Amino acid sequence: MTDEVGAQRTKVQQIADDLKAAIERGDYGPGDRLPGENALAAQYGVASLTARRALKVLSTEGLVESKKGAGARVLSFRPIRRRGIPRVASGQWGSGRSIWSADDHRAPDVDQITVDEDAAPPEHVRDVLELGPDETACVRSRRYVLEGRPVMLAASYLPQALVAGSPITQADTGPGGIYARLADLGHAPTRFREEIRVRLPTADEAARLSIPTDRSVIKLARTAFDADGRAVEINEMTLDSAAYVLDYEFDA
Amino acid sequence: MTDEVGAQRTKVQQIADDLKAAIERGDYGPGDRLPGENALAAQYGVASLTARRALKVLSTEGLVESKKGAGARVLSFRPIRRRGIPRVASGQWGSGRSIWSADDHRAPDVDQITVDEDAAPPEHVRDVLELGPDETACVRSRRYVLEGRPVMLAASYLPQALVAGSPITQADTGPGGIYARLADLGHAPTRFREEIRVRLPTADEAARLSIPTDRSVIKLARTAFDADGRAVEINEMTLDSAAYVLDYEFDA
């Protein structure tokens, strides 16, 4: 990139960094309007396009909502804290304070669910579930919303031969959900693996999550193993990166 | 957004999704050149700007490197697998296959390190370390590189009063590193908490990691607690999101 483009990008980020710090300090609270692009342009001595791009960084990150004519308003949504490992003896450790502020007490609800009892899973799922070339999977696809906002997509894959005829193939799996039903079948999960990566959303993911196409998603694949070490379920989750703080606590 | 802008964005993503799928299938291997923007524009019946934006999605995600005149070449860099929890009895679980291909065997090296024995930490660090208003922290800042590519920044904060005069205040902390030295001081870490969120990089983070300003970073804060439940270290890491797969394995 040329020096001029580089300098302009740095300016965009500096303005964005300043605005984010001001929000973090509480100078602007939920519902407050940030300075407009003309005010910012004058304040920093930059073109209004540069100021507009700085404001766009904040809307990409989900910190503000920009509406034509109304400027950028600070959003009140607090990220959801997702604990990967069930918490034990929580009060015992340190101040109990977290690095990042997030909501411990709300859980999103399922607003869309489809079950395909007999589907051909993607290759990487087939590999991890150790399915033969003719074997299929039961796929449970859900969308989760919080305060009307879609925050996560999830697709669970289970070996079709293992779960055929069980409530796992129904929309409502009953009390305790999939893991309780796997226990009923003699395959209670005893160990989990969570793999996490970050990338831009596909067209379908951006549409279903209603997020800007330049906001990253967190891909979180959770594999459940039974006591024999067999992979019995893979849950591939797609999280709006602005909506979550992930949290893992474990002994040394 | 207007329907026209929306339709164009969707087209950008569809082309990007197709190219990513082709790379995943192996149609294009490391070093191969993707079709240029004119070829893609003709193939999809879109403007060349649309095709250019699709190629930019791939360079933002770190899948290709774009050079003027040379087009977009597929990169060979494999993400690093970072295990949050030390692995036990690895062979025992399932096929041993992971959802995402990543490198288990390479670890990045430190290429920059600075130690400030007596610094005023940010407020959220002060809170979690339970430092009084006059107390300070020892801050160890490092940058990690792999194959010459910066992949992670890390800043460790430890209570100054706890570590003053110990090798923790030196660039070289000796065998076993910070945790072994905390053990020498009678504060061996016995429990860890890792908190993860994703956001766009600050100007400084993008510059130090040499990443595009529109590629997200993973913020990973690891807090170490001693046997008394006291927070003795916070390591705030900033990861190039294209360079890492995070991995957590634990019992149900």
Description:
Chains A, B: One of its GO terms (molecular function) is DNA binding. Chains A, B: Keywords: DNA-binding, Transcription, Transcription regulation. Chains A, B: One of its GO terms (biological process) is negative regulation of DNA-templated transcription. Chains A, B: This is GntR family transcriptional regulator. Two copies of one chain form a homodimer. Chain A starts with a helix and ends with a strand. Chain A has two domains: 3-74, Winged helix-like DNA-binding domain superfamily/Winged helix DNA-binding domain (Arc Repressor Mutant, subunit A, Orthogonal Bundle), CATH 1.10.10; 80-247, Chorismate lyase-like (Chorismate lyase, 3-Layer(aba) Sandwich), CATH 3.40.1410. Chain A is built from seven helices and ten strands. The model of chain A has no long low-confidence stretch (mean pLDDT 90). In chain A, the strands form three sheets. In chain A, strands 4-5-6-9-8-7 form a six-stranded antiparallel beta sheet. Chain A has a two-stranded antiparallel sheet with strand order 1-2. Chain A has a two-stranded parallel sheet with strand order 3-10. In chain A, strand 8 and strand 9 (231-240) form a beta hairpin. In chain A, helix 1 packs across helix 3. Chain A is an alpha+beta fold and 252 residues long. Chain A is 28% helix and 32% strand. At the A-B interface, helix 1, helix 4, strand 7, helix 7 and strand 8 of A face helix 1, helix 4, strand 7, helix 7 and strand 8 of B. Strand 10 of chain A pairs antiparallel with strand 7 (191-199) of chain B.
